[in-house]
Amino acid sequence: MFQIHCPHCGATREEEEFSYAGEAYIPRPANPEEATEAEWGDYLFMRKNTRGWFWEQWQHTAGCRKVFAVKRNTVSYEIAGTWTLAAGKELYLKESEA
Amino acid sequence: MPNFQPYLQSPLVNFNLPALTVPADASQKVRANELPLLGYIVLRGDLSDAAVAQAISQATGLAVPAASRFSSGEAGVLIWQSPDECLLITARAAVPALLAACGKHFDGLFAQAVDNSGGLTTVYLSGVEHVTLLRHLGVYDFESIEAGDAASTVLGKAGGLVCRVDGDGVFLVIRRSFADYLWLLITKAAIPYRFAVAKLPSAGKSPFLRLVDAGSPSKRPVAA
What is the number of CB-based contacts under 8 A between chain A and chain B? Predict the structure, then answer.
């Protein structure tokens, strides 16, 4: 059990109030009409399964019901921070470029 | 349909609360009762948009609340639920007029007012041990809820809103579909605290209690 800060409510709440919503920032194929089956397969089924720092989505189901981005360490469960999806994406892109 | 006779009934009608109600006294450390058949309107729209916030204020006469807070006034109680959603609790009879007012003021805006009166109900929980009882139900730090706060959290396995007006008690806004479950959970958890279904206190200036119609029955016919 851990506590998560909801960027929309501005409050830190118990994990029980939240639902896990998978890996964050998976881009949909840019040209859906022309995407190959392999690209669709990647988009739908392939996930990173990272050991260490991982960008993921959580939904505050018992509160504001908004989905937001969390950077969490999958080994230690430490949370580096939580952001709205828009605010987190900038950081995520900066990190993935580096 | 000549035999169609629509009626309203409280989600807790099967517990027959009006018949169980006793006068409140100090020996009851946890008291609960339902505020039956209130009106609930969901207001959607980006609250950080000044035009939407102004339209909500003009339609309801209530200030748009800050995060996890509620505001109150003549029309009832306006509870913050998310950055783009508020819940307006009002007297059942006032719902059509408020919906019409919202429709008028929301014209041209990306905002919406939806009547959800059939979907929710409110329970008043009071007595010296009411916070202890809440701790039986959920993981939230219930003692941190101050007057004017509205915490949306987990009660048992169901979601619920916990609103505090004063130190005497809290108002739980719960879903119709979970009302039976939560009422049973409250009554079971409250056994050690001399639980009683107590008469609601006189409305006074309480923004919630004064929304209950005097002598409100748990079941009433609806004009078709």
Answer: 38
Containing structural domain, residue A19:
3-97
pLDDT in tens, A70-89: 999 999 999 999 999 999 99
Residue-level pLDDT at B214: 66
Q: Give dist(CA B150, CA B108) in Å, integer.
A: 30
pTM: 0.92
- Beta strands B7-9 and B196-197, pairing class: unpaired
Of B29, B208, B36, B35, give the one whose Cα is nearest residue B136.
B29
% of chain A exceeding 70 in pLDDT: 100
- What residue ranges define each of the domains in chain B, with the CATH number in brackets? 15-36+119-205 (3.30.1360.120), 39-115 (3.30.70.1400)
SS3 of residue B27 by DSSP: coil
Candidate from A11, A17, A66 with C-beta closest to B68: A11
The CATH number covering residue A70 comes to 3.30.2270.10
User: Can you give the pLDDT at residue B216?
Assistant: 67
The verdict on a CB contact (< 8 Å) between B81 and A9 is no
Question: Is ipTM beyond 0.90?
Answer: no
Total count of domains within chain A: 1
At residue B137, the 3 state secondary structure works out as helix
Using CA coordinates, name the residue in chain A closest to B139.
Answer: A14
**Residue of A8, A11, A14 lying closest to B82 (CB–CB):** A8
Nearest CA in chain B to A65: B82
Q: Residue B173 in 3-state DSSP?
A: strand
Average confidence (pLDDT) over B86-114: 95
